Predict the 3D structure of the following.
Amino acid sequence: MSKNEMRRGRSDSVTAAVQAAQNAAHAPLLPPDHVSLPVEAAPFWDALIRNRPRHRWNDADLATAAMLARAQYDVDRLLQEIAAEGDVIGDKLNPKHPLVDKLGRRVVTLSRLLHVHPEATQGRARDQGNELDVERDAEEQHDPLIPTLRVVK
């Protein structure tokens, strides 16, 4: 058993199942009271918070997550503004481009800090490649005329 399994417990244990049920029974996590989060950043917050089990978030992480959600919202907002204004204004690069770059670096850094980046949440790229190969094989074998399993939400 690895150090992480000894420290955290196994994800397929009864204890983990009980913890997951307890987490699901709680209301969604919100930023700490001392941290502001614009309403427009809420979708980024919601997506971010779902990338770690509820019991693994502490107030310091939640404050950092709010900063990340705001940065993601700001990148999205600025990109929309650039799309409307154009990449070049007059004969100069739109001054919002450097802001997007800086915010993009902030997003990457905060994602790594919180361990919510793709490698932390999905695993190594080579492992994902194997899963993708299996999915692509299934897509090739799919025939729309033959009834198959359907996802119901």
